[in-house]
Amino acid sequence: MSRITVGVNKLVAENNFKSGFVALVGRPNVGKSTLVNRLVGQKVAIMSDKPQTTRHKIHSVLNRDDAQVVFLDTPGIHKPRHRLGERMVDLALGALKEVDLVLFLTVAGEPGTGDKYIIDQFQGISTPVILVLNKIDLVSRGDILPIIESFRHLYSFNEIIPVSALTGDNIDRLTEVVMGYLSEGPRYYPEGMITDQPERFIMSEIIREKVLQLTSQEIPHSVSVDVEEIQQRPNNVVAIRAVIYTERDSQKGILIGRSGGMLKEVGKRAREEMEALFGSRVFLELWVKVKSDWRNNEKYLKNFGYLSE
Known about the structure:
This protein is of the alpha/beta class and 309 residues long.
């Protein structure tokens, strides 16, 4: 069924082969998922124009003949307002000490209080930090150098690299700089693998992405998706049953839509992407259920995979 390999490869050292782990950290909605997809060369993380899209620490793998880079796309660092938010920030900050290199991603512009808060977290680590100024396609060339200087006064970054994750501008330069910080090491994952996440997780994230794309500001943060069942059927058909959870009955009504129109559109878009990704025909059954205040409920957070048992 799958075109995505899941599992860990037996570690085998290769001559002159480099490898390492790189964390992407930053405020919400600065383009971390767009950048990691661009670096890997394939969509791995879901994307949305709404903040706090990424909720897990997702490993994405860049494979080259001479190197393998494992990127950790972390949740946006923000002031949490519920237990889920606290978990997301803990994941992002915890990644700083687990990796060989940190990419601090922010939007090209004057540093704000959120940027300064994250920079303060770098004071206690020895990990090299590269500042990546994203969305340079939205600023004039003459403004880039003053922006670089405004950040240079805040921290001794190992490198400062302006890019556009959306257009691909300067991404090759960023990739080569990252390679320069890697040491010789093994190939941690099989060559054809682009993520360590199981197919069930990828399916749930695709569905959640479509909800984010189609709904208003009221809905996205209150939504979680649980893929309850996956069945392999004859003729290369995969049957998937998933539940979209939200916190209020009014939100459930919006997600279903008039005559079920919203839910049908979510299902249509999710099914089409799954079929392209997994190379199988997909039968997708979606339900919407209410779990009041689930983002502050330890039981639901564990059930939805946000907290360990």
